[in-house]
Amino acid sequence: MNPIARAREAALHHPAPRSPAPAPAQPAANTVVALRGAAVRVGGRTLWSGVDLDVGAGEFVAVLGPNGVGKSTLVKVLLGVLAPADGEVRVLGERPGQAGQRVGYLPQRRSFDASLRMRGTDIVRLGWDGDRWGVPLPGRSGARRKAAGERIAEVIELVGASAYANRPIGQCSGGEQQRLLIAQALVRRPELLLLDEPLDSLDLPNQAAVAALVGRICREEGVTVIMVAHDVNPILARLDRVVYLAEGGAVAGHPEQVITSETLSRLYGTPIEVLRTSDGRLVVVGQPEAPALHTDRHAVPGQGGRSAAG
Ligand SMILES: Nc1ncnc2c1ncn2[C@@H]1O[C@H](COP(=O)(O)OP(=O)(O)OP(=O)(O)O)[C@@H](O)[C@H]1O
């Protein structure tokens, strides 16, 4: 039986699993993110439900799925910006939004006007004291300023941005801007870093460079990373696990186990084919779009499904 026929057979006869395996009742001690039976609703529509997920300390996890399935919305739930409609969500042992600076966040791509005079260091500094702009610091403000300056320089060095950090941000390339924004998210030494499509809009060399940087931050700095990704390939070799979201739930596990024709066909209830190119890249064919009107900034005109995993 060919892969499509096998997938169709599996999709017809085995309903999509709501979770990859029976979840433990309580998260393990080193669990950074835990979801139990979580569901999310926006605009009166349930995006996903019955999601069980554990992310352990120091893991590098990608959140994948078709456009509009609710990947960014998962990040908003973890940030505490949006309450889950059902189930339980814990971030660093607390309710979402309660862990403060222990969580760093890089939103979906922002572009800077070429004429913006703010320097890279100013952008990084916003991550340190952006919430206190204009408010004089009480007491030992000189010592605090010095500590802030040292940490900002340290994190700029960490992301390899020292050479251009004093340049106006609008004159930095997309990859340089992204490194500085990652530095901004890291400046308060978060234990968990939430990155929403940080590789989007970057050319291939910059995707590889930023992927390597995030992998290094995870391995060497011990930061747990959850990255929403449109294409898994640039980070595939560095990932501990992937989470594929679907309307009916989620599947999490090692990329080799999850990104398969059988698993994705079962999850989405429709035949999906996963192909591996000669250079090891994964290509997902036939992945459905979310069942709602959605402005699809990733769509390629004339294609029925995505041509890259994610
Ligand atoms: N506040 C809101 N009110 C109504 N609908 C919303 C709201 N926020 C998000 N949505 C919708 O929810 C769906 C999921 O959005 P989300 O941005 O999480 O998807 P995504 O998987 O990250 O998509 P993409 O890959 O295109 O970035 C989309 O259809 C979006 O239009």
TrEMBL record:
PROSITE patterns, per the entry: ABC_TRANSPORTER_1, ABC_TRANSPORTER_2
Region (Disordered) location: 1-27
Domain of life: Bacteria
Biased amino acid composition, Basic and acidic residues: 1-12
Membrane-spanning parts: none
UniProt keyword annotation of ATP-binding present: yes
InterPro entries: AAA+_ATPase (IPR003593), ABC_transporter-like_ATP-bd (IPR003439), ABC_transporter-like_CS (IPR017871), Metal_Ion_Import_ABC (IPR050153), P-loop_NTPase (IPR027417)
Keyword entries, A-Z: ATP-binding, Nucleotide-binding, Transport
Domain ABC transporter residue range list: 33-272
Gene3D superfamilies on file: P-loop containing nucleotide triphosphate hydrolases
Gene Ontology molecular function, alphabetical: ATP binding; ATP hydrolysis activity
Protein name as catalogued: Metal ABC transporter ATP-binding protein
Organism: Actinacidiphila oryziradicis
